[in-house]
Amino acid sequence: MREATLRVFRGDKGGGSEVEYHVPIEEGWVVLDAIHHIQAEMDGTLACRWNCKAAKCGSCSAEINGKPALLCKTRIDALPQGRPIVVYPIRTFPLIRDLVTDVSWNYEVAKRIKPFQYDPAIGDKPFVMYQNDLGRPREFRKCIECFLCQNVCHVLRDHGAKSQYFGPRHMIRLAGLEMHPMDVEDRTEMIWKEGGVGFCNITKCCEEVCPEHIHLTDNAIIPLKERVIDSVGMLRVIKGWVRGKTDSE
After folding, report:
1. DSSP-derived secondary structure letter, 70
2. Cα–Cα distance measured from residue 26 to residue 48, given in angstroms and rounded to the nearest whole number
3. 8-state DSSP, 5
4. How far, in Å, CA of 221 to CA of 174, rounded?
5. pLDDT higher than 70, residue 241
6. Poorest-confidence range of 57-66, 186-195, 202-211, 227-236?
7. Which residues contact 45 (CB under 8 A, 6 or more apart)?
8. Helices 168-178 & 222-232, crossing angle to 10 degrees?
9. C-beta atoms surrounding 83 within 10 Å
10. What is the pLDDT of residues 188-225, one digit of tens each?
11. Which contiguous run of DSSP H or E holds residue 244?
12. Which of 13, 55, 190, 198 is most exposed, with the fewest beta carbons within 10 Å of its own?
């Protein structure tokens, strides 16, 4: 049985540091297996959030060797061999302890988004929709809310502009609603003002880390930008975006 060296961040909002563990590794293990071994055999105080271990709950988000990823989806044998595996919590959100962060801001944002609203004139009649009308909304519903996209978003992470931009996770939620053929709610003002879609500069870093391979930028954020421009006009959008940027500085 071979051994792997894990350097895991230990600490809380007051500070912390890396702690090194030498873990016996079995074939097929993912990083979450190694974390579980540490908890069971070496240090039961290590805090780590997880649930399904099937890459569907989004709970075990972390930064592995500097890259945001799911602990349960990152195979140890796929990482560089002979080098320590460095595990940190995602850093865009407040740290609670060790590998656990407080992502509750995302749920507060979700509450502010206007839900699906169908045309009351339809009454009890069944919805009639074409299959190709549901392609993109279905893609967005694959999101497991791991918030890795939120973690790499430079607007949220580097500029701390959570009061001005909802982030890519909530942009695809808005896009899923806006593109639904039976939804009649108008969310244009929210998308460009409160949601701050103009702050995204299309780096596509959110797409690179998405475990569900959702095309967040091409299929959601860019179409939302186009809808906003078509609805409120380019000049008004630019003035509003510049004003918001100036206020944040």
Report:
1. E
2. 20
3. E
4. 9
5. no
6. 227-236
7. none
8. 60
9. 10
10. 989 988 999 989 989 999 999 999 999 999 999 999 99
11. helix 234-248
12. 13
Distances (CA, A) of 249 to 91, 160, 242: 22, 11, 11
Round to whole Å and give the CA distance between 28 and 5.
Answer: 16
Q: Please state the rounded mean pLDDT for residues 166-190.
A: 92
**Strands 85-88 and 2-12, sheet pairing:** parallel
Q: Which helix (H) or strand (E) holds 138?
A: helix 135-140
Amino acid at the residue 177: L
User: CA–CA separation, 152 vs 11, rounded Å?
Assistant: 22
- Check residue 119 and give its pLDDT: 82
In this model, does residue 235 exceed pLDDT 60? no
**pLDDT of 227 over the 60 cut:** yes
How many Cβ atoms are within 10 Å of 1's Cβ, its own excluded? Answer: 6
